[in-house]
Amino acid sequence: xTNVVEKVYEQVVERNRGEAEFHQAVRxxxxxxxxxxSKHPHYAEAGLLERIVExxxxxxxxxxxxxxxxxxxxxxxxxxxxxxALGPYKGGLRFHPSVNVGIIKFLGFExxxxxxxxxxxxxxxxxxxxxDPHGKxxxxxxxxxxxxxxxxxxHIGPSTDVPAGDxxxxxxEIGYMFGQYKRLKNSYDAGVLTGKGLAWGGSLVRTEATxxxxxxxxxxxxxxxxxxxxxxxxxxxxxxxxxxYAIEKAQALGxxxxxxxxxxxxxxxxxxxxxELLKQVxxxxxxRVADYVERRPGARLVTEGRVxxxxxxxxxxCATQNELDGNNAATLLRQGCGVVAEGANMPSTPEAxxxxxxxxxxxxxxxxxxxxxxxxxxxxxxxxxxxxxxxFETAEAKLTDIMTDIHDSCVVTAEEYGxxxxxxxxxxxxxxxxxxxxxxxxxxx
Length: 445
Ligand code: NDP
Hints:
single chain, 445 residues, alpha/beta, Rossmann fold, 5-stranded mixed beta sheet, 5-stranded parallel beta sheet, 15% strand, globular, binds NADPH dihydro-nicotinamide-adenine-dinucleotide phosphate
């Protein structure tokens, strides 16, 4: 790292001790911005780097609730409002036992550049709780969500901060939180949350958007080599919102998806994933991946190793951060994988990213390839503000255009800095420049 960048990174580590994921995300962005800072020294001179790594506001709060046995439970809630240069803070809420302030900050930091890449008027933020929805009754989830929103409602609003879903937060949780927000504020502000149900302000295609967008991005990368997804073997990790709709779109484009996973193991289905069965198990029954194998002849459950052990042409990590390490990357490369497009946020470790880049394969960082979700959330806000609703085709066409634009702007930006095909540099430099120029225009705030 150059002196300027190294100094900022060291300060981040010093000031945010023990927040390993946040350090990792900052390092990845700062390192790749070195050519930008060298070419445009005015960014560093204006203290832009020091400012962009510091959240505008961090909120941490107690979330007390009562379980079905009448016991009081206490979780911790977070909302990190990272950067509002381009618009209201925007980013999901994650409910998972691993959640801590460092994880929320890494996600919020990534969100700034991702949102900028969509070219929409949205700033970056993220939130969540260490609450685990797994194994909880609907009533427990509702009581938790109501308590969580009772505090969060003080800090958000359609022009201030607009949360959405992420791991552990889907339509059910957004519904309970919206109901509580509406009750507290005595106001039907549909634009305060995205990922809403279709009957109460949701947008068609929002459910599908992140997974579809990731696959569209992979398709655009392949097109630069005169190829497509048709006939490709694809491995997918995760079995949640992003993974399911990545599988749906990849199969619609002629690929065969042969894996998915959850925290209990992964499934290999060489015949191609039976999407209806997967949706039934995961979306309707909230079951485990083993439930799929029980009903699907030929599919097998693997509880050792990782999904990346399975040979493929294209890999789509769609579960969580750091789920694909240097060894997994070496296995993927050895077995002929030529494309990695991240549906999850920061699923590849720095060692894995280095291996992909050295091998010269097509590698898309999540902040570019999974931006379709937040982009469609911004489309949901647009429909809420104008009290209209677009049909599926209209919303999907807009998503496709946005993903194509993001892809092309990564390509053009990487070329501008003399590193064609480097989607990491392309995404970080294009996203950073958009935010940084607006921050300069707004003065020192
Ligand atoms: P879901 O909660 O719907 O699904 C998450 C999936 O990943 C589940 O199958 C879950 O398994 C698995 N998983 C999560 N954490 C772990 C873990 N620590 N170890 C093993 N498996 C794990 O979440 P989403 O599909 O919404 O999110 C997946 C990823 O995509 C996340 O990185 C998220 O930040 C990112 N993302 C999501 C967007 C969205 O629109 N939803 C937008 C952009 C990015 P299990 O149920 O067993 O925990």
